[in-house]
Design brief:
Rossmann fold; 22 helices; alpha/beta; 7-stranded mixed β-sheet; 4 domains; about 500 residues
Length: about 500
């Protein structure tokens, strides 16, 4: 999302005394607020920052006697000159009754000074604003202050802002590097770093450019994506997945592949002119080991989009903060990285009927937020979700408008098994034409795609230990030694197939 400059300016002009900015990008916020101050008030605005280590500091240096937060707020009350006051660590102390009382006093003092300013609608530069900004990576606001504080969510840089940062860093490099950038490569690089903060972006670009005299496109994009993967991984809930698995790396599932190939056209400019909407997402349910997760990976590769995996178990773990705040932060990161594919594996593990019924639980609040976001999201984020136990999911998440389609992945047919054997033999540099694939497919009825892959792996180990080439016999022996999931969980699979018979589209023809 773009930086909310207009929202901040309108709140200041209207005389709001205290603004709570949700962001962990302190440097970016400071720079933009300085820009707003200079733009509207011709540089006559005093600018102060406070932190728990440095106290209050202005343009002339440290303000004496402001190490304590209450004393720093006293200075805000006593200062009659117009100014912006950014308090960085205030959220750590907001459970202190004295601090809450002093913030109410600040509100009253700054509000009374704003009422004495020229009337609304006059030139903003003729006014004398005093605004206190609380800067925090998460919303921690006592209910006693809800009426006094306006909250603004500052998202990660959008594409226009990323392009500006990219140009700034590129201009500081050598002429050889700048000259090697085509407009197309520049746009690919910008998309590669979407989803990062401003400082992270700058560091990633500088590290990537170090020691390079010319730019190789593939090497550069791989390096930028690797930097992005490292930084996104720190969130603990999101993983940047690097995969080269395409739709041709999946055996069978013709209906699902065809559906995905048609939806890929929606990301083109011509599709937008035609009136097509960006696809919302797909829910792939079915038997474990039949290629659901592989399909999610293949979507990103086929469409040329980054793949982000959301770990719902980490969201509820509490390690990275309250579940609601962690989930909201993850969604904001995903939106900033769009267009992209959001992969939610085994979605029923985090969003279930039990969570829906517990009205005051974190699961219930996350469920509500997720439903609203799925329905109304404006960013091109395609959700690829998988589920093994579809009956655990609330009906609200299954209706049209949340997911575009629900596909059911069953055990592979004989034709599908033949194709799966071909794919796994090719991936291990074996010539599929040297094997009787029809016989292999016929003798492996009931095996899932994952079990067929394991049969190939086991047969390779046996052949290698016997110092001989892999053949049909070893593959059949390895496959026959596997007790398939279709046998051990026959009742559960039958129940799943009955549920999907008239509620989902079969992924295979």
């Amino acid at each position: 999302m773009p930086f909310p400059t207009e929202a901040i300016e309108s709140f200041i002009t209207a005389g709001y005394p205290i603004l709570y900015l949700i962001s962990w990008e302190e440097e970016r916020i400071e720079n933009r607020l300085k820009f707003i101050g200079k733009k509207f008030y011709q540089g006559s605005l005093n600018f102060y920052t406070w932190s728990c280590t440095d106290g209050m500091r202005g343009e002339d240096g440290e303000v004496k006697g402001t190490q304590d937060v209450i004393q720093a707020l006293d200075k805000v009350i006593d200062n009659n000159e117009s100014g912006f006051y950014i308090f960085k660590d205030l959220h750590f102390f907001l459970n202190d009754p004295k601090l809450i009382r002093r913030l109410k006093d600040v509100y009253q003092k700054l509000r009374s000074s704003s009422l004495n300013s020229p009337p609304l609608g006059s030139d903003p530069r003729s006014q004398s604003p005093n605004t206190l900004f609380i800067l925090s990576p998460s919303l921690i606001l006592p209910y006693e202050l809800e009426k006094e504080v306006a909250v603004i969510d500052v998202g990660l840089p959008d594409e226009d802002e990323v392009r500006m940062f990219f140009d700034s860093v590129l201009n500081s490099t050598s002429d050889k590097i700048r000259d090697s950038f085509t407009p197309e490569l520049k746009e690919k690089s910008v998309r590669a770093i979407l989803g990062l903060g401003a400082s992270e972006m700058e560091l990633a670009l500088r590290r990537t450019f170090i020691g390079r005299e010319k730019i190789d496109e593939n090497e550069l994009l791989d390096a930028l994506l690797e930097e992005k993967a490292q930084l996104i991984r720190k969130s603990g809930t999101l993983e940047f997945v690097r995969t080269r698995v395409g739709l041709d790396g999946i055996g069978g599932l013709e209906n699902l592949k065809e559906w995905l190939e048609i939806r890929a056209l929606a990301f083109s400019p011509k599709a937008k002119e035609f009136g097509l909407d960006i696809p919302k997402g797909v829910l792939i349910m079915g038997i474990s080991g039949c290629g659901k997760s592989l399909c999610a990976k293949a979507v990103a590769t086929a469409w040329g989009l980054p793949l982000l995996r959301l770990e719902l178990n980490q969201v509820y773990g509490g390690t990275f903060g309250s579940p609601e705040e962690v989930f909201r932060r993850a969604i904001k990161t995903v939106e900033a990285a769009s267009p992209c594919v959001l992969w939610i594996d085994e979605i029923e593990a985090g969003i279930t009927r039990s969570g829906e019924k517990a009205s005051d639980s974190p699961a219930s609040r996350i469920f509500g937020y997720f439903l609203t976001w799925m329905q109304e999201k404006e960013h091109p984020v395609f959700i690829a979700a998988t589920a093994n136990q579809i009956d655990l999911l609330p009906p609200e998440i299954l209706r049209k408008g949340r997911f575009d389609e629900i596909f059911f992945v069953s055990l592979p047919s004989q034709k599908d098994r033949k194709e799966i054997f071909r794919i796994h033999l090719l991936s291990r540099e074996k010539n599929p034409d040297s094997f009787d694939l029809d016989s292999l497919a016929k003798n492996t009825e009931g095996l899932s795609g994952a079990e067929i892959e394991q049969a190939v792996v086991s047969a390779l180990f046996e052949s290698f230990s016997k110092r001989k080439d892999l053949d049909n016999k070893e593959l059949i022996i390895a496959a026959s030694s596997i007790v398939p999931l279709s046998t051990t969980m026959r009742e559960e699979i039958s129940k799943l197939e009955r549920w999907a018979s008239n509620r989902a589209i079969k992924a295979s023809k």
